[in-house]
Amino acid sequence: MSACEQIKSSAQDAILELETEIVDLEEKIETYKFRIQNAQTQIHSLRRFLTPEESGQGMSTLTNGALTGVVAEMLSDLYPQSVHYKDLTDLILQNGNDIPVKQPEKAVLSCLSKLTRSGSIKSTGKGYYESVNAREKSGGEEYQ
After folding, report:
1. Nearest by Cα to 78 from 92, 66, 60
2. Residue 144 and residue 6: Cα distance in Å, rounded?
3. pLDDT tens digits, residue range 73-87?
4. Does 60-134 carry CATH code 2.130.10.10?
């Protein structure tokens, strides 16, 4: 084997090794993201049992999945009323939650988009959303 072939072979081996390492790291990142999201959701759920003083902070910080859950829950509670995403953001903040981004409305809008794609909610007009009720989910039959 010539020196050039050895270099090519070594380079190919190194590339394969690095690609495998990248895949492993990406899987670990996704696992950690999932664990963080679950922990944040659990913290948010547990803080409901505490007063703001007991929880150590006046506001509950919402990120990722926790915010999406709160958005879905609020729309479900407000059903059949449609709510504008800016009003929904205000309601979330007024309920003692913090959305730690520069533009909370955009974070809420992103959650609304995800929930719309999943079929949990629907858009009822420009910027307005409502929960999909049980009757619509079951194909038109009401629960008794």
Report:
1. 92
2. 75
3. 888 888 888 999 999
4. no
Would you state the structure tokens that stand for residue 47, as one six-digit string?
A: 């803080």
**Distance from C-alpha of 108 to C-alpha of 76, rounded to nearest angstrom:** 15
Using alpha carbons, list the distances in angstroms from residue 12 to 17, 18, 19, 21, 71: 9, 10, 10, 14, 49
Q: What is this structure's pTM?
A: 0.51
Tell me the CA distances in angstroms from 24 to 31, 88, 118, one per residue in order.
11, 39, 29
The mean per-residue pLDDT over the stretch 32-41 comes to 83
Collapsing DSSP to helix, strand or coil, 44 comes out as helix
**Angstrom distance (rounded) from CA 2 to CA 78:** 74
Domain layout of the chain by residue ranges: 1-50, 60-134
